[in-house]
Each structure stands twice: as structure tokens, then as C-alpha cells.
Amino acid sequence: MTRIAVVEGDGIGREVVPIAARALCTLRPDWVQVPVELGLERWRRTGTALDEKDLEVLRSTDAVLFGAVQSAPNGEYPSVVLALRRALGLYANIRPVRGKGADLVIVRENSEGLYAGRERIEPDRACTERVITRAGTERITRLACRLTAGRRHLTIGHKANVLAADRFFLRVAREVAIDEGIVADDALIDALCLDVLRRPGRYDVVLVENMFGDILSDVAAFHAGGLGMLPSANLGDRYALFEPVHGSAPDIAGQGIANPTAALLSTAMLLDHLGETDAARRLQSAVGTVLSGGKRTPDLGGTATTRQFGDAVVAELEKGE
Asked: Would you say the pTM of this structure is higher than 0.90?
């Protein structure tokens, strides 16, 4: 029996994930959904944002549908997202971007770089260590090459003209690409961000280290209509977690206006990952039909609420039953 962990988290995660979970139930009513509470609201109530029992539950499921977790004020607990990535070995963050002439996939290394958590604060300075390893670069490049084999071409984004770590990242990535039989080009990350905005059709699979991938995908979200439209997959060798790119968005939480598209498309990625290709396509098609029909949330210039948009998508799915 397939079991899916459902983590609403904080902020608008509590509004968009129930919509996505409902769509998933419509498509696969036989799958068991296992609710798991993580994040700031739980920490405020219990003093714990994530513990080993939670990880045991997540590891016992086939995939995780995740909303968003808000950071604690003053860094009073370690990042839940980083803890999940480490505990579940989620080293690859896959962020597809489609729309306005763009059809690209950003492959972001998910475990190293400035987000590796090697930091210290001293009285007169703060230091964050940027970690790039051969093992980490080789495994993310192999994954990017596998994706590229079924698409068009690979671009490696970097800042090798300034940073020694990026010269290392670029060299190792090129070696792996050659070994995998993939012809790769490369681009400086600042120029790449601008060119993706200007000429998105030039790019297909883009491989980048952790922080650069975070920034580049936010920039590329312009072509899809904003962060409310971007899904993502966090993959490891054993576990998988699927989440919208947008985060907890506390400024609009509770207003019923959050766009659930990214959560719905993340659910489609989850379905595809588990071999449910037809169900994934049905969900993607339902979202596209609702959007093209003019029902949109305020971030896209519409007036639909989160629930109204979700109801419309589920209604489309039910037509196909």
C-alpha cells in the first residue's frame, strides 16, 4: 500500500497543501495520507519543530508532500528544511520552469554550498563556509546528465571567474558530463540570470550549486508567472520530498488568497516519481484548464480564492473519472 506523508507546515502551507492533498485523493483514493506536523507553530506550542519520531514516520512513507516551514525568530531553532534534507539524504532539488517561451529544468545541488550549515558568529564578524565536494558535485552532475539524456542540452552555471570553489565545481561537472557522454556548455551565473530572462528558449537543463540554484529559479519564475507557479522535487537515493518553491509567505497567510498551483504541480511531480504518469498528466492538465479558463488567484491578476481555485481543479479531475 502506498503511503504519502502530508506536511502542511506553516503559513500558506496550511492553505495550499490541503488543496493538493485533496487532488491527490481524487486521483488515488487508495493511497494512505499520513499527516505530519512540523514547523514554527508546532515549536511555539511544544518547543519542538522536528524530532526523530517525525523522521521515522517520513522514512516509513513512499514520498512526502510538503508545504512550507517558517523560520523561528532570532534563529531559535535550526532550519527544519535543512534538517530534513540531511536526514533524508535529499541532495538534488529539481525545479522545472514552464511558460512564456521557457521550458527548462534547474538542477540545484541541495546539500552543500553556503547552505551546508557551517557557520559561526563572533563578536566582530560572522562567517559562513561554502562547501563544495567532489562527491557532491559528481552525484548531482550525474543526475543532471540523466535528465539531459531525455531532453536537449546541459548548461553549467557558476562563478568560476571569481570563486575557487566554483572553478572546482565546474571542472568536476565537466569531467562527469564527458564521462556520461553529455555535451555541456557553461555560463557565469550573473549573466545566466539575465539571459534566462531575455532568451529562455536557449536553456534546457541548468546545473547549479545550492545558493545559485535558489536564486536562479526565483529569477526564472518570471516566465511561469511568479513563485506561486513553481513546483519542486527534493530527491535522494532513497527518499523523495515534493514542495512548492514559494515558502510560507507569512504576509498573506490566513487571507485565503494563496496560489495553490505550485503545490498542485508538486503533487504531479510526486505522482510521476512514483510511476503514476497518467495521473500526473491529468493533474497538470486540470491545472492548465482552470488557468486558461480565467480562474486565477490575485497574484495572477484574478479574484479567485485558494479554495475556489482548488475546487475548480478537483472538479476538472472528477470529470475524467
From this structure: yes
Q: For residues 239 and 287, what is the distance between their CA atoms, to the nearest angstrom?
A: 26
pLDDT grade, residue 100 (50/70/90)? confident
Is 190 catalytic? The answer is: yes
Give the pLDDT confidence score for residue 305 in this predicted structure: 98
- The residues pairing with 106 across neighbouring beta strands, listed in sequence order, are 95, 206
Query: 10, 54, 166, 214: which one is catalytic?
Result: 214
| Active-site residue, 239 included | no
Q: Which of 62, 77, 103, 159 is catalytic?
A: 159
Domains and CATH numbers, the chain: 1-94+225-321 (3.40.718.10), 101-224 (3.40.718.10)
- Rounded to whole angstroms, the Cα distance separating 166 from 158 reads 6
Report whether pLDDT(168) > 80. yes
**Average pLDDT of the segment spanning 40-57:** 94
Is the pLDDT reported for residue 109 higher than 70? yes
Which of 62, 186, 190, 195 is labelled catalytic?
190
Band (71; pLDDT cuts 50, 70, 90): confident
* Given 62, 186, 204, 218, the catalytic residue: 218
Residue 124 is a catalytic residue? no
- Give me the catalytic one of 91, 115, 203, 239: 115
Does the pLDDT of residue 72 top 80, yes or no? Answer: no
**What is the pLDDT at residue 79?**
84
